[in-house]
Amino acid sequence: QQENEDLQGKLKLSKHMSQTAGKSEATPAPSKNIYLEMKQLQCKLKNSNNEITKQSTTIKSLKNEVQDKEERVRQLQAKISRLERDLSMKRHLIEDLRSRLKASQENEKTSNETLESLERKVKAFAEDCSNKKTSIDSLKQRLNVATKEKSQCEQMYHKAKDELEKKNLKLASLESKMIETECAMTELETAASQQLHGLAKQSGHALETVQKKLLLTHDRVQEFKTFVKALTRELQHSVQEMRTKIKQAKRIGELKACKKSLSQESVQLAASILNVSTMDLEEILEVEDDEETAKTKMEFEKDKEWLQHVQKLLEAEFPFASYLTDAIMEKLNEKKKLVEEYSSLMEHTV
């Protein structure tokens, strides 16, 4: 087509040039070369037109073929799409059939299991039926036995009824006798109540006398406890006094020894230095040391423990007399020792 267009353009140009040459007088006539070229170009144009017609016919035939092929392709694509749809449907059907097959297999399993269970139940029911038949037979036998027993019981009932009527008669006679005995019992009760009233009065008097005796014994016990407490206090007090006397005697002996060693002038000199009287100096010299105070504290604690021990013995259960005498004798022995010590000290001081 492009060559055809080029040739047509060249032909138009040559025509135009020939026209311009014919019009203008001054220009010379066209040469043989140009004419030959024109003929060649026309020949070429014809050839090209022929080729174009051939090619257009071939193009048309090719287009028709292409259209046929496109239609065929469309038909094939439609067929393919249909086949794909069919294939997908078949796949879905296959899957559905598989799932149904699985479900049917499972159902078959469950149905088999249910069948087995039903068979077992049928067997169990058959066994139950046989057992029930045997039980019914045994119950029938029992019923026969029960009917026989019932007839026997009815006979016994009639006998018992006759005996009951006889016993009712006896009971009526016994009730009359009971009324008589009740009357006698009331009389006996009145007599017994009178006797009990008298006995209660006597026992009340006896209880009053016993209570009075108990109060007296309680008062005596309290007096005994107060006596023991007073005795223990007095013992402790006398022991403490004896200890103080012993301490005083020891101090007097020590003071006398100091006075013997010290002259009167030295005592007066010490009193004048300390700016105190001789009596005050003696009191200062009489002050206890730490060992003595600790000893007195221990003795006081021992006396306290001894008093608590005596109190516990008095509050303890019977018998406690031997323990109480031991405790009091212990304190008396201590007092005896202290008296002996005091007498020996007084003899030495004299």
Automatic annotation (TrEMBL):
Matching InterPro entries: CNTLN (IPR038810)
GO annotation (BP), single: centriole-centriole cohesion
Example of a GO cellular component annotation carried by this entry: centriole
Ranges where the record places region Disordered: 1-33
Protein's name in the database: CNTLN protein
Biological source species: Chloroceryle aenea
High-level lineage: Eukaryota, Metazoa, Chordata, Craniata, Vertebrata
Primary gene name: Cntln_0
